[in-house]
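EI: anyone free to look at a 99-residue chain?
SC: sure, send it
EI:
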Amino acid sequence: MPPRGGSKGSDRQGPQSGRRRPGSSSAGPIRKKNCFFCKDKIEEIDYKNYNQLRRYVSEKGKIRSRRITGACRRHQRQVAVAVKRAREMALLPYVSDSR
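SC: here you go
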């Protein structure tokens, strides 16, 4: 009986193939990023504090993701709303000037 799966070349290697991602040189434990706002016990994020919000906006003007910033779900949503309000009030740019 032939193996199931539908493809003849089923010698494809899975995620346990020994390959590593480029840039991941250490095999140590992954350090979890802690939320800056939870650490400092900040309840609400103010859109007028644009210097603090600049950390959460990329050079192109995009809002950085939770995976990059390390913010918790609640504070990442507040950051997104605050950045959008700061853009509306012309405190932060929508896009960068340089190309």
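EI: The mean pLDDT is 82.
SC: 👍
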